[in-house]
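Attaching the record inline, Q. Sequence:
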Amino acid sequence: MSERSAKPAIPAPLSALINGDTDEQVTYTVDSAIETLGFGPVQWRVTAMCGILWAADGVETTILAIVAPETRCVFHVSPWKEAFLTTVVFSGMLLGAAPWGRVADRFGRKQAIMLSTIAVIYFGVLSAFAPNYWWLLALRAVFGFALAGLPQSVTYFMEMVPRKTRGACSAFLQFVYSIGMVAAAGMSIGVMSALNWRYLLAFSVLAYIIVLPLTLLAPESPFYFVSRGWLSKALESLKAIASGNSKSLPEGTLVAKRPGGDMNFLSETVQARDADQPPLGVKDLFRPAKALCTTLLLWLMWFLVAFSYFGLLLMTTELLQMYHTVGEERAECLDRIPDDNAQECQSLTTRDYVDVLWTSLAEFPAIAICYILNHFLGRRASIAVHSVCSTAVGSLLLICPLTKAGTVGLIFAMRSFLSSLFNTLYLYTSEVYPTRLRATGLGAAYTWGRIGGITTPFIAQVMLRSTVRGTKLFYAVTSLLVGVAGFLLPIETKGRSLESETWEDDVTASGTSSPSSQPKYRRLG
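Structure, as predicted:
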């Protein structure tokens, strides 16, 4: 026997790779499997689950604006303490975002969603039984922390549907979020008229109770299993999806594109290819120069848009309460709201809740406005147009005298433009960052939006009582600043490919948006 024949045999997969013949072993990834399985019954159940969660999130946003003024009258607290009831919810959401993200990465998307939903139900119901202001403040803070886990449903949703449907799915989430806001306004008409704010808080968690069985029946994301290196469990999850959709998995062997775990030779080649690419972090959001400029401008814009949007929501109920407390004729030119006392503090009437419902309907034209402007003008020009229009409408709120009906109509218009501006900003942020920085960039910008939500109650609910016109002008100016910042953005993302790996990559699809770069809408909820 010759020395050559005595050499150890090279494993078949590695031999095929060395010889350039990789056709001997057919492989597929989780991404390609999801594409093959398509959008079937499993995806419809996932859509129902995530849709209900986001509608419930819209309900909570409206509840914030309704409950705060009511509790001020019930507990006889100052406007400062009223503002804190909203601030602690946003603060809890800010503090809970990172821990819930770690729970989702360590224990799975499904587990994070389920635990967060149970915590929201528990602390939401407990809030309804708060014996005094301080108990309510503490329970709403923990409630906000629990609520921070529900955005993991978006990650789960996008991982469970085919790539070509993700744009439509994102738009669907925005649509049901709007439905939730309108539903909360409608629910408040009956509940607040016949019962009180405690029942409203308790009823607001009904949607989360409904979604729990759907969560239990949903499969875990196979992308999560791959991220942990558990290919066998990822395969089991894919088989469950295939069975539910009455389809077959692609032929071949499942492979993954990350080191560790039970990976095969294709995973190792990918690991070797990417070995010279260090992981990117927050510091990479600031280099090169155009990255620094883009990131700082986006942080400013996220803060201002969240500040203006949530401030307008809170200011709506405060203005309606003002008209009811001092009388419509006197309120038409009133610039300072008299201090409340036990006799003067007035709860909102049924007519006021109907007006809240009308302003909530502004969320629906906002979706159409966002699509039309982004389709024809691009991202930066759309931001500028939204900003100018919301500022113009906000300036009309300074008219004296201004009837209650006129106030409601102008708030409707301003909210439409601000909501559409919010959607456009989310779209731009998700498009402008390279693939390896996208999650980090979006997460950092999202944080600044939360800070905007934390600070705005002190303008919409405290400063408003000292100067009504000054507060209206303040929000009009902040809307204008968003447009100025948008004009200074160095990159236009319309038609930009989402496959860019670095800031230097600026790939466009021949001047038109590729399917992967179609608008995606999601609210800071």
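The radius of gyration is 26 Å. The beta strands are 27-28, 253-254.

More tomorrow.
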